[in-house]
């Protein structure tokens, strides 16, 4: 997760460039999938950017879709196995799957 903890973003700062730099620098991109996020042009742009680095970066970038509320994912995002955090699934089970996907558990 990227959060402006260092206070980089303030009036007049190109925040889109900060987001792009963060997506580029991090080895994992997790996107929360919901009807709202799949309608967002900003989220679509972030996914496209992450996908570019997935294919072109040494070692690639791990892209993990987290299904918060069921919806159809964008075609390029649907190529990745989603982890369901939908209400019908136990949270602990979904969290375990996420940790396995991030190589933090077996």
Question: Please, could you describe this protein's structure?
Answer:
Helix 1 runs parallel beside helix 3. The protein contains four helices and three strands; from the N terminus they run H-E-H-H-E-E-H. The chain is globular, with a radius of gyration of 15 Å. The chain has one domain (27-101): Rossmann fold, CATH 3.40.50.10140. Strands 1-2-3 form a three-stranded parallel β-sheet. Helix content is 41%, strand content 13%. It has helices at 15-25, 35-39, 41-56, 91-101; strands spanning 28-33, 62-67, 83-84.
How is the topology of this model organized?
Blueprint: H1 15-25, E1 28-33, H2 35-39, H3 41-56, E2 62-67, E3 83-84, H4 91-101
Parallel strand pairs: 1-2, 2-3
Helix pairs in contact: 1-3
In short:
The protein is of the alpha/beta class and 106 residues long. The protein has helices spanning 15-25, 35-39, 41-56, 91-101, and strands at 28-33, 62-67, 83-84. Helix 1 (15-25) packs parallel to helix 3.
Compute the number of strand runs: 3
SS strand fraction? 5-15%
Count of distinct structural domains: 1
Distance between the termini: 22 Å
The secondary-structure element order is HEHHEEH
Mean of the pLDDT scores? 86
Radius of gyration: 15 Å
Instruction: Sketch the major β-sheet.
Output: 3 strands, parallel
Q: In the CATH classification, which architecture applies?
A: 3-Layer(aba) Sandwich
Main sheet strand line-up: 1-2-3
Please write the CATH class name.
Answer: Alpha Beta
Ranges where pLDDT stays below 50 over 5 or more residues in a row are none
Instruction: Write the CATH homologous superfamily.
Output: Toll/interleukin-1 receptor homology (TIR) domain
Query: Number of DSSP helices?
Result: 4
Q: What general form does the structure show?
A: globular
How much helix is in the residues? 40-55%
| Named CATH topology | Rossmann fold
- Indicate the structural class: alpha/beta
């Amino acid at each position: 997760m990227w959060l402006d903890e260092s206070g980089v973003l303030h009036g007049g700062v190109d925040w889109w460039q900060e987001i792009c730099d963060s997506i580029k620098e991090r080895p994992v991109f997790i996107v929360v999938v919901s009807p709202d996020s799949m309608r967002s042009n900003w989220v679509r742009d972030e996914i496209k950017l992450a996908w570019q680095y997935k294919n072109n970066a040494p070692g690639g970038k791990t892209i993990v879709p987290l299904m918060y509320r069921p919806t159809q994912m964008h075609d390029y995002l649907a190529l990745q196995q989603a982890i369901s955090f939908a209400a019908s699934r136990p949270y602990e089970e979904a969290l375990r799957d996420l940790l396995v996907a991030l190589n933090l558990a077996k």
